[in-house]
Amino acid sequence: MYRVASASEYLVITGLGIADINITKKAWVLPGQSWTKFDVSPVNYTFEVQAMSAEKLPFLLPAVFTVGPRVDDEASLMKYAKLISPHDKFSNHVQDLVQGIIEGETRVLAASMTMEEIFKGTKEFKQEVFEKVQLELNQFGLLIYNANVKQLVDVQGHEYFSYLGQKTQMEAANQAKIDVAEARMKGEIGAKLRLGQTLQNAAKIDAETRIISTQREGEGKKEEIKVKTEVKVYENHREAEVAEANAVLAKKKAGWAKEAQVAEVEAEKAVALRDAELQKEVERMNALAMTEKLKAEFLSKASVEYETKVQEANWGLYKKQKEAEAFLYEKEKEAAAEKATAEADFYRRKQIIDGDLYAKLKEAEGLKALAEAQGTYLQTLLEALGGNYGALRDYLMISGGMFQELAKINGEAIRGLQPKISIWTNGGSHEATSEGGGSALKEVAGIYRTLPPLFNTVHEQTGMMPPTWMGTITNDSSK
């Protein structure tokens, strides 16, 4: 579909076929692509920044910043579209971001300037804040269109500007008093000066008048009173000189009086001004001394409490650590002892099992060797008996003591009875002896001949019959 943005908006398209994002005013939005609009009109952010000068004096700086995206730079517009446009520009997120940057830069700049520099150089301070804030906002693609820093405001409890205004007012009042005194001084000096000039001119006019009248009176008596006239002229001239001298003296006295009065007024005002300055300095030093004393007392008390709390906390932590280490060490030792006991028990059991296994193996080897020896023995006997398995069986029974055991059992069975004793003879002892009594087969044959009488006796005493494989008993057997 075809999308078009308004004059103050831009389209942001991303998705299929677009590596990052595409910012445009109008475009076709294809399937698999997503789009959104964002407004680029600037927004006013009004707030008060609380900062502190280099003298550690806090103040409030009301400010209004008009901030918006930089539309004339594609890279900045891309940053704004990625970082800011997903949020509402009137939201707390964007306002906190802009306000945080402005407050941070303002505080850093204010901390490097004194209060007097900030107050007198408001224009330079505003320009510095503007440049530093703009430098930080560049990374978000934002531009400051306008910045208005209002008059600095005192923080409650720190009325610096109020005191500064009072100081200016007092300086203006004192200057007005000085101007009034100076005007009064000029008036008095001017009056005296005019009075002196009046007296001087009057004396001069009087002298000239007297000279003229004397000359007119002497015209008629010029010859008569020539000497008197000359004397009179001389006297008048002397009087004029005296009058002039008096006028000069009066003028000088007026000047001296003026200077004396000016000096007196200046001295009084200087003394009063110096006294006020010294009194102010004394009060300021007393306030600073009291402040430092209170700071020192509170700091000392806080430091002692802090050190005490730290030591107590460290001691408690040390005790707990040592207890934990002791408990851990005890558990480790118990675990090690249990492990050693388990290993020793395991080793002992293993040795016992290994010994039993070895004994069993040796026993098995002995049984195997015995079986092999018995097999060899039986094979030899079988070969000696010419392969007669019956003879071999009888021999084994005889050599194994079976018949003796049977005789013993029978004897035990008939003990205390009066058995019928039959004596058998086969008459072959002499013949066997004569034919070679040393032969093993003949001995076996002799033992075998004793079996029938034995079986017969057992049958008569107990009623038991011998096994069929050993033979049968008949009634006509001879004794």
Layout of secondary structure:
Blueprint: E1 2-4, E2 9-15, E3 22-24, E4 26-28, E5 33-39, E6 43-52, E7 58-69, H1 74-83, H2 92-111, H3 115-120, H4 122-137, E8 142-149, E9 153-154, H5 160-220, H6 226-384, H7 389-399, H8 402-413, H9 429-436, H10 440-449, H11 451-462
Antiparallel strand pairs: 1-4, 2-3, 2-5, 6-7, 7-8, 7-9
Pfam families: Band_7
Coiled coil: 319-350
Keywords: Cell membrane, Coiled coil, Membrane
Q: How would you characterize the overall build of this protein?
A:
This protein is an alpha+beta fold and 479 residues long. The protein has 11 helices and 9 strands. The protein has helices at residues 74-83, 92-111, 115-120, 122-137, 160-220, 226-384, 389-399, 402-413, 429-436, 440-449, 451-462; strands at residues 2-4, 9-15, 22-24, 26-28, 33-39, 43-52, 58-69, 142-149, 153-154. Helix 2 (92-111) packs across helix 4 (122-137) and helix 5 packs antiparallel against helix 6. Mean pLDDT is 76; it is low at 429-437.
Whole-number mean pLDDT = 76
Question: Which radius of gyration do the C-alpha atoms yield?
Answer: 73 Å
Q: Spans of 5+ residues with little confidence (pLDDT < 50)? A: 429-437
Number of helices: 11
Q: What spatial form do the alpha-carbon principal axes imply? A: elongated
Major sheet description: 4 strands, antiparallel
- Strand tally is 9
Task: Determine the N-to-C terminus distance.
Answer: 136 Å
Keywords: Cell membrane, Coiled coil, Membrane
Subcellular location: Cell membrane; Membrane, Caveola
Domain Band: 7-183
Organism: Anisodus tanguticus
